[in-house]
Amino acid sequence: MNCEVAHERIVTAVYGELADEQTHELERHVEGCAECRKEREQTLALKVLMAAYPAMEPDANLVARSRMRLEEALDALPPMRWFERLGQRLTNSFASLTAAPVAATLLLLVGAGAGSLGGYRVAENRAARTLAAQRAQAQNQPASVTTAENAAPAEISNISSIVQQPNSHLVEVRYNQVVPQKIEGSLDDPAIRQLLMLASQNSASPGVRDDSVGLLAAECRAGHGCQAEGIRDALMVALRYDRNEGVREKAMQGLEPYVAQDQRVRDAMLEALLYDSDPKIRKTAINILQPVEGDTSVRQVLNSVANSDRSPYIRTVSRQVLDRVPEIQ
Amino acid sequence: MNGPKSAEERAQARAPEMELIREAQAGSRAAFDSLVRQYEQQVLRLALHLTGSEHDAEDIYQEAFLKAYRYIGNFRFECSFYTWIYRIVTNLCLDQLRRRKTRREDHAVVVSHSGDEIDMLASVSDERSFSNPAKELERKVLGERIQTALEKLTPRERMVFELKHYQGLRLRTIGEMLSTTEETAKNTLFRATKKLRTQLAGLR
To answer: Which ipTM score applies to this complex?
Structure first.
């Protein structure tokens, strides 16, 4: 190791971020190099010195003032309208889907929606005009607007408003429809995968999330192109945030093959070990992390778990793993 | 890394936080307010130390949370919410530091230093000196010198140093917040410490 590298590593080491092997190497170099010893002393001195300008906790007045100002500003904002929120949601959910087929479907849906709305309006206007012209017969004019047949192929998700025209039997009912779609294809089909990923995060039903995460995880374990399409990310999201422990466990199994090579996967696994509410998941995390237990951050987390996990069993297991580490090295 | 207590606390805090985010995304003001309460202390602490001004910190707080409110629908649970909110705050702070840097450039004062890079250890190793009231003033002066030295850093160096040294974040997280790599964050930290040492050389 030359001194230039050593100087860089000294800073990293002083801030506790140097990997163990490199720390050892650095120690050896510094022992035999007066210049680097001086460098380290000064870096440490700087660290101490900087404490003379500490980061203070903001005082309560400042917090209160800021909060009040924010609340006023938020109150003054116009509430977000439903279509803005829907737009945001759609952008969100669909951002990860391959653009073309989805955009086409969306266009189709929007077109169909606009078409039926237009038709509806025309019919409504015509009905209203007739109503004005022939007041006497007005009560016999209503029906052409929308009947149960029009709504038949799609499910009605909710009724948003009902308005009765004054002095008539005409009623305007606004409603939203859900149009069911179906797609069939191989598990390797990108479109199917995208839908599975979407299902793994957005579905309200734990059963659907469980199925989709299970399938994705099996793909990952079998090594079927788990790289490019973000399947790994979807599994990490499921592991971190899914409310159902069965789903989290499946996600974990899918990620297992990547724990050694992908730092992000390892981080997700460490988080699960530290924070997951289910002891079974925490235990599985320990097992999965065993091949990389020599890693500094893995050991830090194991240490923390060994000292503070709620479950005595987990504490024992992690301690056992830690005890074994020196032998491995 | 986290102490046992904070690990425990965060374990409990995480699940309801996800719920809060989802509710805020669905338009709930109350849920958003709860999120603000969870993070406001840290946001103010960072902004206050970086800008050294309550007024600026208040502005950053305001802008950051308004932005978060506007874009919370775009949060996709790919990173932690903590990283997401910090990314907004650090960007605003960086803008603020850049603006300030261009304003000050005209009348920048050169901090004198003897060129002899030492004494730092001698001047700070005796921590008891800080508890002595007679040294309070000296400490204040020292604080101002440090602040001046920090202002000499580029906004990015300043930010990395701040997040590492004062906020105690890991380099990997810092890289993520600043949309760069851990390696770059490490190099920036190295440059920052080097500059600070030059600036503060000969200080006693």
So the answer is: 0.77
